[in-house]
Write a structure and sequence with these properties.
Blueprint: E1 3-7, E2 10-13, E3 18-25, E4 33-39, E5 46-51, E6 58-60, E7 66-71, E8 76-81, E9 90-97, H1 104-107, E10 115-116, E11 120-125
Parallel strand pairs: 2-11
Antiparallel strand pairs: 1-3, 3-8, 4-5, 4-9, 5-6, 7-8, 9-10, 9-11
Protein backbone atom coordinates (compact mmCIF):
# COMPACT_ATOMS: atom_id res chain seq x y z
CA UNK A 1 0.00 0.00 0.00
CA UNK A 2 1.00 3.58 -0.67
CA UNK A 3 -0.41 6.59 1.10
CA UNK A 4 -0.25 9.91 -0.72
CA UNK A 5 -0.81 13.31 0.84
CA UNK A 6 -0.95 16.45 -1.27
CA UNK A 7 -0.37 19.97 -0.04
CA UNK A 8 0.32 23.43 -1.34
CA UNK A 9 -3.02 24.36 -2.85
CA UNK A 10 -4.90 27.54 -2.10
CA UNK A 11 -6.46 30.70 -3.45
CA UNK A 12 -4.16 32.63 -5.76
CA UNK A 13 -4.46 35.35 -8.36
CA UNK A 14 -4.03 34.94 -12.08
CA UNK A 15 -0.38 35.23 -13.01
CA UNK A 16 0.87 33.82 -9.70
CA UNK A 17 2.91 30.66 -9.33
CA UNK A 18 2.29 27.72 -7.04
CA UNK A 19 4.15 24.59 -6.07
CA UNK A 20 2.16 21.56 -5.05
CA UNK A 21 3.73 18.75 -3.06
CA UNK A 22 2.80 15.11 -2.62
CA UNK A 23 4.47 13.00 0.01
CA UNK A 24 4.30 9.21 -0.17
CA UNK A 25 4.64 6.54 2.46
CA UNK A 26 4.31 2.79 2.61
CA UNK A 27 6.38 1.63 -0.36
CA UNK A 28 9.73 2.36 -1.93
CA UNK A 29 9.02 5.70 -3.48
CA UNK A 30 11.84 5.59 -5.98
CA UNK A 31 10.25 2.55 -7.66
CA UNK A 32 7.03 4.40 -8.42
CA UNK A 33 5.98 6.33 -11.47
CA UNK A 34 4.29 9.46 -10.14
CA UNK A 35 1.61 11.53 -11.81
CA UNK A 36 -0.44 14.65 -11.27
CA UNK A 37 -4.03 14.93 -12.42
CA UNK A 38 -6.69 17.58 -11.91
CA UNK A 39 -10.45 17.79 -11.89
CA UNK A 40 -12.32 21.02 -12.44
CA UNK A 41 -15.95 21.45 -11.33
CA UNK A 42 -18.27 19.60 -13.66
CA UNK A 43 -15.42 18.10 -15.68
CA UNK A 44 -13.66 14.77 -15.84
CA UNK A 45 -10.34 14.20 -14.19
CA UNK A 46 -7.49 14.91 -16.59
CA UNK A 47 -3.81 14.21 -16.82
CA UNK A 48 -1.36 17.01 -16.08
CA UNK A 49 2.13 15.54 -15.76
CA UNK A 50 4.10 12.40 -14.91
CA UNK A 51 7.64 11.53 -13.93
CA UNK A 52 9.29 8.15 -14.11
CA UNK A 53 11.69 6.28 -11.89
CA UNK A 54 14.28 7.71 -14.21
CA UNK A 55 13.74 11.43 -13.90
CA UNK A 56 14.60 11.84 -17.56
CA UNK A 57 11.19 10.31 -18.24
CA UNK A 58 8.78 13.23 -18.19
CA UNK A 59 5.45 13.71 -19.85
CA UNK A 60 3.16 16.73 -19.83
CA UNK A 61 -0.29 17.40 -21.16
CA UNK A 62 0.67 21.01 -21.88
CA UNK A 63 4.37 21.67 -21.57
CA UNK A 64 5.39 25.16 -20.69
CA UNK A 65 3.72 26.26 -17.48
CA UNK A 66 4.00 23.00 -15.56
CA UNK A 67 7.11 21.34 -14.15
CA UNK A 68 7.07 18.01 -12.36
CA UNK A 69 10.00 16.90 -10.24
CA UNK A 70 10.74 14.43 -7.48
CA UNK A 71 12.98 14.14 -4.45
CA UNK A 72 13.38 10.48 -3.61
CA UNK A 73 15.18 11.29 -0.36
CA UNK A 74 12.01 13.07 0.81
CA UNK A 75 9.54 10.67 -0.83
CA UNK A 76 8.00 13.70 -2.45
CA UNK A 77 6.87 14.69 -5.92
CA UNK A 78 6.26 18.31 -6.84
CA UNK A 79 4.22 20.17 -9.42
CA UNK A 80 5.29 23.71 -10.16
CA UNK A 81 2.63 25.76 -11.93
CA UNK A 82 3.59 29.15 -13.34
CA UNK A 83 1.45 31.97 -14.71
CA UNK A 84 -1.70 30.53 -13.23
CA UNK A 85 -4.96 31.08 -15.10
CA UNK A 86 -8.57 30.91 -13.86
CA UNK A 87 -9.01 27.77 -15.96
CA UNK A 88 -6.38 26.06 -13.80
CA UNK A 89 -8.90 26.07 -10.97
CA UNK A 90 -9.37 22.45 -9.95
CA UNK A 91 -8.67 19.83 -7.37
CA UNK A 92 -5.17 18.51 -8.06
CA UNK A 93 -4.48 14.86 -7.35
CA UNK A 94 -1.24 13.01 -6.97
CA UNK A 95 -1.12 9.37 -8.08
CA UNK A 96 1.33 6.48 -8.01
CA UNK A 97 1.87 3.73 -10.56
CA UNK A 98 3.68 0.54 -9.56
CA UNK A 99 4.39 -0.56 -13.10
CA UNK A 100 8.00 -0.39 -14.28
CA UNK A 101 6.87 0.27 -17.83
CA UNK A 102 7.02 3.85 -19.01
CA UNK A 103 5.05 4.88 -22.04
CA UNK A 104 3.42 8.23 -22.55
CA UNK A 105 0.06 6.60 -23.07
CA UNK A 106 0.26 4.57 -19.87
CA UNK A 107 1.40 7.38 -17.62
CA UNK A 108 -1.32 9.72 -18.87
CA UNK A 109 -4.10 7.18 -18.29
CA UNK A 110 -6.05 7.38 -15.04
CA UNK A 111 -6.71 3.64 -14.91
CA UNK A 112 -2.98 2.85 -14.91
CA UNK A 113 -2.50 4.37 -11.46
CA UNK A 114 -2.79 2.24 -8.37
CA UNK A 115 -2.87 4.81 -5.59
CA UNK A 116 -4.35 8.28 -5.23
CA UNK A 117 -4.17 11.11 -2.77
CA UNK A 118 -7.14 13.01 -1.46
CA UNK A 119 -6.45 16.07 -3.59
CA UNK A 120 -5.61 19.69 -2.93
CA UNK A 121 -7.78 22.57 -4.13
CA UNK A 122 -6.29 25.26 -6.34
CA UNK A 123 -8.47 28.28 -7.00
CA UNK A 124 -7.27 31.01 -9.34
CA UNK A 125 -9.06 34.34 -9.26
CA UNK A 126 -9.01 36.68 -12.23
Amino acid sequence: QVQLVESGGGLVQAGDSLRLSCTASGRTFSNLIMGWFRQAPGKEREFVAAIGRNTNNLHYKDPGRFTISRDNAKNTVYLQINTLKPEDTAVYYCAANRSPNWTRLRVSTIQEYDYWGQGTQVTVSS
